[in-house]
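FYI - complex with 1-deoxynojirimycin, inputs then prediction.
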Amino acid sequence: MLVTSTLHTTETTTSPEHRPDALLLHAPDGPDAAWWRHAVIYQIYPRSWADADGDGVGDLPGITNRLPYLRDLGVDAVWLSPFYRSPMADAGYDVADYRDIDPLFGSLSDATALLARAKELGLRVIVDLVPNHTSDEHEWFQAALAAGPGSPERERYIFREGSGPTGDEPPNNWLSVFRGPAWTQVQAGDPATGAKGQWYLNLFDSKQPDLNWQHPQVREEFHDILRFWLARGVDGFRVDVAHGLVKRAGLPAWDEASVMIDDHDGAGEREAIPTNAAPMWDQDGVHEIYRGWREVLDAANPAGDPAQDKILCAEAWVEPIDRLTLYTRRDEMHQAFNFPFLVTPWRAGELREVIAQSLRAADSVGAPTTWVLSNHDVVRHASRLGLPIGDPRPNGIGPNDTQPDAVVGLRRARAATTLMLGLPGSAYLYQGEELGLPESTQVPDDARQDPAWFRSGKTVLGRDGCRIPMAWEADAPALGFNDTGATWLPQPQEYRELAVDRQTGVPGSTLELYRTLLGARREHDLGTGGLRELPGYGDDVIAYVNEAHDGSHTAVLVNLGEQPAPLPSGRLVAASGELLGGALPTDTAAWVLLD
Ligand code: NOJ
């Protein structure tokens, strides 16, 4: 099911014109901009990328073997989702030991080998850091349970007495992101004394107790963990739930559902509640923590060589966007994921608006903006964009739900990526999106593993459908994920035709489109370019000119309207689908190097 397109290298002629006086949305970076201001970073979900030992779960040696694929794809860096020792209650986002690798994924020496191989290939490596909570199997939490109420060990977490006449009700009404109460009672009580068991806060699963970031030991410990991985040669950290570490004093009541992001589709009115209205999110106290981390990272690059910069990227589901920029002030993190872009529906006006706002907001603090369309927590964009525009974003898609239109979804996904990679800033790709992999809507209920599925009484499908093992070779066991055919989640039928070997070298395949885009982005320095609107188009066409510091001008266009749109005069560099008589059809994007 490959979309074929022919790249016409003929000149195109039309009325829209690049006008250097048109609205400048973003000024270019200098030619020596640090790598993270424009890097394309590929997210590997270690469970599902490549499985060297054949147990059905991906691992670090598997990743190391496959790294040349990423060099050939043309990305700059890799972000690895957690590989730490973990009971895997939340697929590794429940860390029991931050300084060791889970045996499922390999060993510390496998991590060293991976880092060395990446360096040889010219790929930087960012690892995931999970500071909001540990696993309940972390030695600190085990010590807290053993030591009992009032102990210093309990101070490192958020333990409270229960409420209600008998103390058997949670201390407050907060809800977990994965559904159910955000509190877990540790024991039924002590019959000898009549004392009731305390409760601990878990904003996610009960097996993910929240740390108490007011505690100096917690702060010191994470500085040390940063140094541990910096000493092993990592280039940075993606910071999980970066907006959750500090809770409002007194833990005041908050009865809204706790979500990482709302599912509003962007249509109609919405009450704009800033995230920090909720006492558990985006509290001002988090920034001091990141200022401390920035010092640790900067100390790892004493000469201040931009090529050696070690970075922090915030996973912060924060609104409005101006609050998000607080995380990327000069003495805090380098980047924050641009989730407002990810959740914007396929409507030209709203996309234009979010792009302009993102650039403006990031520029206001001198940070690069980032762009992202998929990750391991959301429905893959090849499927999301195939759902009716205006429907709320689902948390997983099951066989009985409205099915995405695969053709429309892929067409829009390719256009969306062509838009994204034509914009200045840093971009994140999620494994398999370069193949156009759809969400699996066929995960059997008994195979589901997302804690949200269990905590919701099996009503919220959750994220398993975007975490399916990768498709490498159409005719190999487990599509080349391993040699044994075992997979921790089943691979749907349609992944076969989308496997890497089916797309490699095939003109018009999604994989070749990504390669073309990444190559041209690098060649024309689009990541550090300035961005100007390209006037002359109607509301349904998003049209920019990316102005590189070498003086080249690349038009980046997407047509969301029904009528084909003319292309500006120049050389067609890339197109997400076939052109129609030299014009850009519906749901198609193109880059044109202007004369
Ligand atoms: C965000 C991660 O991306 C997600 O996968 C995880 O479940 C939560 N944080 C909790 O760590």
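Residues 452 and 458 are 8 Å apart (CA to CA). Residues 90, 93, 130, 204, 240-241, 315, 376-377 surround 1-deoxynojirimycin (CB under 6 Å).
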